[in-house]
Amino acid sequence: MKNKIKFLGYALVVAIVLLQLYPSDKPMVSAENPDDLLLTNKVPENIASILKSACYDCHSNESKFPWYSNIAPIKWLVYDDIKEAREELNFSEWNTINRSDKGELLDDLSTVISEGEMPLEKYVLLHPEAKLSEEDREALVNWADEMLDSLYD
Ligand code: HEC
After folding, report:
1. FRET partner for 70 with CA separation of 20 to 30 A, picked from 62, 77, 116, 152?
2. What is the tally of structural domains in the chain?
3. Residues lining ligand 1, CB < 6 A?
4. Does residue 46 lie within any of the structural domains?
5. Which mutation among 46, 50, 59 tests ligand 1's pocket best, with the greatest number of atoms within 8 A of CB?
6. What are 30-58's pLDDT values in tens digits?
């Protein structure tokens, strides 16, 4: 019995080590993003700070990768989420997005924030500082609505 448990333990370690060999593309990170929303627009400080702490890990080129996010199988999920999130909305490339797409994104932003869909639940579990209060959500939605109006000024 004891030997069996020992064997299973070793087998598990070997399996986890082998998983690390499976290739996966880590999303690129860039510190210089001249088209970033926060550089190219006047965004109030409280909004910028919410976006940075609750959204930028996935929706920008400035993702931070805690140690566990680089270990398979977790990294497969994290990398996929980041790639998908950037494809939908990348704040680092905001200034390159055309006006009608910006409008759609701001509209989607209001929706996902008021419905509590973002930031993703699993992310908030590991990043409690990203949890949005009622006031945070309200502030974000109001900002997105104003920003949407200002697109057509
Ligand atoms: C853990 C990664 C992660 C975080 C953090 C995160 N998102 Fe997302 N977001 C995603 C992924 C993945 C998608 C695409 C799949 C989906 O819609 O669920 C997405 C999609 C979106 C979309 C497009 C939705 C649609 O239906 O078109 C918006 C808008 C959005 N996120 C806004 C935000 C905002 C604002 C924040 C911060 C308050 C945020 N997200 C935080 C991962 C994240």
Report:
1. 116
2. 1
3. 54-55, 57-59, 81, 84-85, 88-89, 105, 108-109, 112-113, 118-120, 123
4. yes
5. 59
6. 999 999 999 999 999 999 999 999 999 99
129-153: b (≥16 Cβ within 10 Å) or e: ebebeeebbebbbebbeebbeeeee
Residue numbers of the domain that contains 146: 27-151
pLDDT, one tens digit per residue, over 97-134 is 999 999 999 999 999 999 999 999 999 999 999 999 99
pLDDT at 80 over 90: yes
Smallest CA separation from ligand 1 atom 9, residue: 85
Q: Report the candidate in 79, 72, 77 with the shortest Cα–Cα distance to residue 19.
A: 72
Q: Which residues contact 52 (CB under 8 A, 6 or more apart)?
A: 38
- Let me know if residue 127 belongs to a domain: yes
Return the percentage of the chain with pLDDT > 70, whole number: 100
The residue whose CB lies within 8 Å of the most ligand 1 atoms, and thus the one to mutate among 63, 89, 123, is: 89
Structure confidence at residue 152 (pLDDT) = 87
Nearest CA to ligand 1 atom 32: 109
Is there a domain that residue 7 lies in?
Answer: no
pTM of structure: 0.94
Q: Which two tokens stand for residue 20?
A: 């690390």
140, two tokens: 């974000």
